[in-house]
Amino acid sequence: MMSSTIVQDIIHQHGGDKALLLQVLLAVQDADPQKYLSEESVNEIARILEIPRSRVYSTASFYSEISLQPRGIYLIRVCTNAPCENAGKALVLQAIEKELGIGAGQTTSDGIFTVECVNCLGACYMSPAIKVNDVIYGDLTPEKAVKIIAELRKEYQDGQNTSGSCI
Amino acid sequence: MGKTPLDLVFNIEPNVFVSLEEYLRTGGYAALAKSLSQGAELSLREIINSDLRGRGGAAFPAGKKIEMVRGNAETTRYIICNADEGEPGTFKDRFIMTHIPFQLLEGITIAAYLSGASQGYIYVRHEYPEAQGILIKAINQAEEEGLLGENIFGSGFSFHLELFSGAGSYLCGEETALLSSIEGKKGRPRLKPPYPTQSGLWNKPTLINNVETLANIPKIIEKGASWYRSLGTEDSSGTKLISLSGDIKKRGLIEVPFGISFAEIINDFGGGPKEGRKIKAVNIGGASGVLVPPELLDTPLEYKACAQAGITIGSGAIFVLDDTRSILDNVQNRLKFFLHESCGKCTPCREGLRQADIILDKLIAGQAGVKDVDTLTRYTGAIQEASFCGLGQAAGNTLRSSLTYYREEYLACCQENRKSAGGEDLALMEETA
């Protein structure tokens, strides 16, 4: 959960009462460890900007890249448009879902992975493509997709071990 | 890729990032300096004479649009660079932002000067974090070097530019929806008129142009309108960025002068269809464009010729389908895309697309009849003609063109025409969106 001060700081950085709502929503979501807009965050934003909560929800719920549900550390987005579809997206998505044991729109119970279907990533020259957080992977096969997940798992484990040894 | 002759507008080099240092070394920002010294009137004349048209899809004369903002009595004006490139199959603006960001920034700054705007936004879709990062850095660098900000080149002209991130809505590429989005609302379209040039962002006159359009401007100012016109044809001046993908040997971004044929683009740059395959259909202009049969590919890439042939150049996406592809599957993929992106404001788009999708489900499952194809044709007309904004109107393009050129394929799926053996391979596509 996000603390009220963090939300306040973000709004302040975005110009205080002149802050543009959509930019505030994205920044608050980015700062949340679970990469979503919690009810508490929505309440805080509405309070500080002095607008009704319904207005914040109205905007937040319209946009696909804003989530009102907690999401994983690795956000895997699978492009579903025609260039990727024709290049074998269905098999890639299937492999990812099978490997993680979840369907599109869901998060693994350990909170590490979320899978979402999205529209065009602008990577049609290397379709089928997926995006993991900010990195695009192209020319995928089901095998390559499973390998990427294995690498992410390892990266996560290593990160855990490192932070463990620091303490 | 391909054999683009050099000295066009963008001169694409796939893996080269043009830094500010490199851009300045090769003549960058000379056009801004020239504009500021020769004055806005003369520079605007050059843009008007170049016959540059909007490259986002609508092909509105760019000079005229600047003139409309400039002529406004209200002096608080805005400029917005529309970088919400969400048209499936299109990746040209992404390339400009990630490879030649300063050509874009210079173009925006010149357009701001010509229209009298002192504040601008680049509205970049959230799906392009790399482009956002590069642009934020580029804006900071330009500010440090006095290429943005107060009193640029000592001319007295001040211009502030900020990046605004979209949040995953295709509809926000529509200019009035984009305005609502910056204003903090749902990205729903507004009624036009008033046009944004009269009443745009926070009800002030606003110039909204696509990335590619704005990135053309420095070259036009630098080399002149007649040079620019010499690149294209009498009807369509300059060059077009083409995003080439699908069932061809080479995929990627190319820059071509107007007048080249679609067949040349696909064969000379894309290497033609894969070994042993034939082209069945080509989707031109992205998901909101049309499906075109091979017979029409000799049409030149030209606004007038394409309009006559019923082809939408749109964003310049060319997506090739070979003879292994099902037209109905591809049409449904686009339909589901529009259904997901429809804002729900008007009934023809919201409900029409849903009903069309249900009919396609039935057709693909082999449970539809010829009368369903007729109903689909009727709904397509309603969606195209009665939708509130360009999204619904464009959503009908794929349906309309596929029903015109590939009606046989629709009819072959109908119960009246199906052989009992053919049913298995037409399994219902699983909905994943």
Radius of gyration of chain B: 22 Å
Total domains of chain A: 2
Unreliable spans of chain B = 420-433
CATH architecture assignment of the largest domain in chain B: 3-Layer(aba) Sandwich
CATH class of the largest domain in chain B: Alpha Beta
Multimeric state: heterodimer
Strand content of chain B: 5-15%
Order of helices and strands of chain B: HHHHEHHEHEHEHHEEHEEHEHHHHH
Structural class of chain B: alpha/beta
CATH architecture of the largest domain in chain A: 3-Layer(aba) Sandwich
Overall 3D shape of chain B: globular
Overall morphology of chain A: globular
On the 0 to 100 scale, the average pLDDT of chain B is 94
Structural class by sheet pairing and helices of chain A: alpha+beta
Strand order, sheet with most strands of chain B: 6-5-9-7-8
Helix content of chain B: 40-55%
Number of separate helices of chain B: 17
Helix/strand layout:
The complex is a heterodimer of chains A (167) and B (433).
Chain A: H1 4-13, H2 21-31, H3 39-49, H4 53-62, E1 74-79, H5 82-86, H6 89-100, E2 113-118, E3 130-132, E4 135-137, H7 142-166
Parallel strand pairs in A: 1-2
Antiparallel strand pairs in A: 1-3, 3-4
Chain B: H1 20-25, H2 30-38, H3 40-50, H4 62-70, E1 78-83, H5 92-99, H6 101-115, E2 119-124, H7 129-144, E3 160-165, H8 175-182, E4 206-210, H9 211-223, H10 225-231, E5 239-246, E6 252-257, H11 262-269, E7 279-284, E8 290-292, H12 303-309, E9 317-322, H13 327-341, H14 347-364, H15 370-386, H16 390-405, H17 407-412
Parallel strand pairs in B: 1-2, 1-4, 2-3, 5-9
Antiparallel strand pairs in B: 5-6, 7-8, 7-9
